[in-house]
Please model this.
Amino acid sequence: MAPLRTLRFLAAGAVWALAISASPVLAEDAPTGEQIFALCTQCHGSVGQGNVAVAAPPISGMDEWYVAKQLRKYQTGARGKHAADHEGLKMRPMVRFLKTDAWVDNVAAHVAGLPRHTPEATLIGGDSERGKGLYGPCAACHGQAGEGVQATNGAPLVGLSDWYLYSSIEKFKAGIRGSDPLDTDGAVMRGMAMILVDDQAMKDVIAHIMTFSN
Amino acid sequence: MLEAFMLQASSYAADIDFVVNLVGVLVGFWFFLCSGVFFYFIFRYRAKDGVKAEWITGEVKSQKNWVFYPHLLVLVCDVFILAAAIRVWVDVKQVIPEENTPVRIVSQQWAWTFVHPGPDGELDTPDDITKIDELHLETNRVYRYELSSLDVMHDFSVPVFRLKQDAIPGRIIQGWFKPTMAGEFDVQCAEMCGIGHGLMPARVYVESPEQHAMWMAQHAPKSLAAITAP
Ligand SMILES: [Cu+2]
Model:
């Protein structure tokens, strides 16, 4: 484990150095997605499996369009710029490191190509049977099996950890996410989050979403 | 001297530069004088035929005087430095001018949240304006900041103000500054705070009172705008 860690650390360092020395000329040929991903592993884990300790969700195997879109939202401040979005504020500065569109596209493609993570349940008290009913309207935008629907900008939900699903829905409900004027599809989701009127409804629907991973 | 490298954009920037310059001049004087004396002695007493090297223990009064008198003079210099430094320290860090406008600064990994008091000049009222990584100020107004941290230690540093203050989790640290020059300036985090430390720059916008009033009107919280709209 230790040598692997060191290697990862060195790799991350190398990409940092690249970023710092990136002149306009260098920016044209961006590093590969794998090289850039070395930075992301610091929080999202070595294979993008997420790390609850730093509130970083699993991202491996997420659709490329969705990853790229979120990275661009962080860049423009459409996401992660609310004073109460403490986790988003941690992610936001990381995209300052992606110098050009090519960097965003490369790393998004790499993330999408990683094998999807199978999350473990950490929330208790959710009833997946009741959640199935509640999930009905969600399927229109997120797909029957949470696979995501690009046409509606609906995020893929399969593979996400329950703690992240919970905090995301909470943020939508509180207007911490999806309330920026630039975040038009976040605003759509805000309205939908209101359907989940209480804590129990949130847990139930999350319990159902977690069944997609198995 | 220092303003050639970095603008002086706060009321106390020149005072702090004065102390830095004073230390530089006094220490510089002794540095060059001592170096000169050393090099002179090294040259004057270099190896010569027929002269044996000598071991000096430094107990003879005439030899001790070479240390004793300069050391007294250096202590006199220290008194000047201390007097100047304490005067500036009390002014900058100990006494907050009575008439002031509060502003809340919250640091976290890796962002600065600035809560501006809005037109009423008071925090925790509905017209407060919260911004991430953007601090808007008015020229020639005294601001009292309330600095805190949500996670680890950070340090709120505005080089052109000559202001640098640690933020410590669990504490609300108060201090003040008075911008004197309109413009857009850097805020840096000056305390290593994790992987995003170098990626958490912010900006201070110092505006004329008219411009600042306009900014406040444009950024009034939405709910408030709805209430006051005709
Ligand atoms: Cu910091």
In short: Residues B 107, 110, 154, 189, 193, 197, 200 surround copper (II) ion (CB under 6 Å). Helices of chain B lie at 13-44, 61-94, 209-218, 222-228. Residues 61-94 of chain B form the longest helix (34 residues).
